[in-house]
Amino acid sequence: MENTDQQGKAEKAFKNFGKRLDDFMVEVNEASEHLQKEFKSRFEELKESAEELKEQAKDKERWKEVEANLKKAGEQLNNAFKAAFKKKDGQ
Description:
This protein has one helix and no strands. It is mostly helical.
């Protein structure tokens, strides 16, 4: 009889362990789904940030080109004024 009681206790312990393991697996799956959603959200944010940086880099290159052209135009205007005033002073 004592042997039967021990078997019953072992079965009950294993059954309880199995239930806890099943509950744990459900929690792990839920956490996994939550983490996947979180990582996907973070990844999307990073992609958007990368696109913003890409656009800003393009704009910087464009503005560098504009700045260079304005600088050239300023130098040409400066040279034109110098030439105009030299002729006037030379007469």
